[in-house]
Amino acid sequence: MTGTAVVTVVHGRHDHLELQRLSLALSTRAPDEHVVVAVDDPVVAAADWCAAELPTHPLGLPIAAARNRGAEVAIERGADVLVFLDVDCLAAPGLVTAYGEVVRDEPTIVWSGPVTYLEEPPPGGYDLSRLAALDSPHPARPAPGPGVRTRGADPDLFWSLSFACSVEAWHGLGGFCEDYVGYGGEDTDFARTIAASDLDLGWVGDARAYHQWHPVSRPPVEHVDDIVRNAAIFQRRWGTTPMLGWLEAFEERGLVSRDDAGRWLAVG
């Protein structure tokens, strides 16, 4: 049995999830499964379409573990292509088809599609029929045009908002490292795991997504403890420090410091 499964992890953002589900329903080819994993979210967990649920972790949301659980359910249901889509992302009509085709054509590559960050929605909300008119992919990431595939992508530019891989590739990678809990680090770690394997990273222009607006902090000061802890995990695993821009911005604000060994510490 083969099929394309979209995996979405949810903690709140119910309006965003509802619009994502509508965008997937408008796909030129709907996913065979939409595997929604509720993390400490009893409202979503109670829905008959919710596939799995996880409790929260004492240190924060177990996003890495939730993605792994979603992949497990998708594979149990017969998927051969796994598409991971952040709850804030709307799918362009061709996203599911594009990911399914490119993964089956080149299953040893983990594929990402361009993501546009949308402005705050108008009073009537986003018009799903006009998303293409808003297309303006994030300038910090590759953005191949429609019909274009690129390979040999920089692992430091990988993000987990929207990507896809074959089940064989997923098994070979072992999924996300569940040592990461809370905000930050697990997707950069996943990309390093890909780079250290026999697999490659690529971008596919036809798998476009649109990130729904929500308020953000720059830098994300509400996640200082998570970022310091997860950066230390990454340092132990890979020998380098991720999220350095955020850590240095925290340091400027007096929120973190470095000890004599160069380790980052949350102040207080």
Tell me what you see in this structure.
With 268 residues, the chain is of the alpha/beta class. The chain has 2 domains: 4-211, Spore Coat Polysaccharide Biosynthesis Protein SpsA, Chain A (Alpha-Beta Complex), CATH 3.90.550; 221-266, no CATH class. The chain has 8 helices and 13 strands. The protein has helices at residues 14-25, 42-45, 63-76, 95-105, 167-173, 186-195, 224-238, 244-252, and strands at 4-10, 33-39, 50-54, 81-85, 89-91, 109-112, 115-117, 149-151, 162-166, 200-204, 209-211, 256-258, 264-266. The protein has an 8-stranded mixed sheet, sandwiched between helices.
Please outline what is shown here:
The protein is an alpha/beta fold and 268 residues long. The protein has two domains: 4-211, Spore Coat Polysaccharide Biosynthesis Protein SpsA, Chain A, CATH 3.90.550; 221-266, no CATH class.
SSE map:
Layout: E1 4-10, H1 14-25, E2 33-39, H2 42-45, E3 50-54, H3 63-76, E4 81-85, E5 89-91, H4 95-105, E6 109-112, E7 115-117, E8 149-151, E9 162-166, H5 167-173, H6 186-195, E10 200-204, E11 209-211, H7 224-238, H8 244-252, E12 256-258, E13 264-266
Parallel strand pairs: 1-2, 1-4, 2-3, 6-10, 7-11
Antiparallel strand pairs: 4-9, 5-11, 6-9, 8-10, 12-13
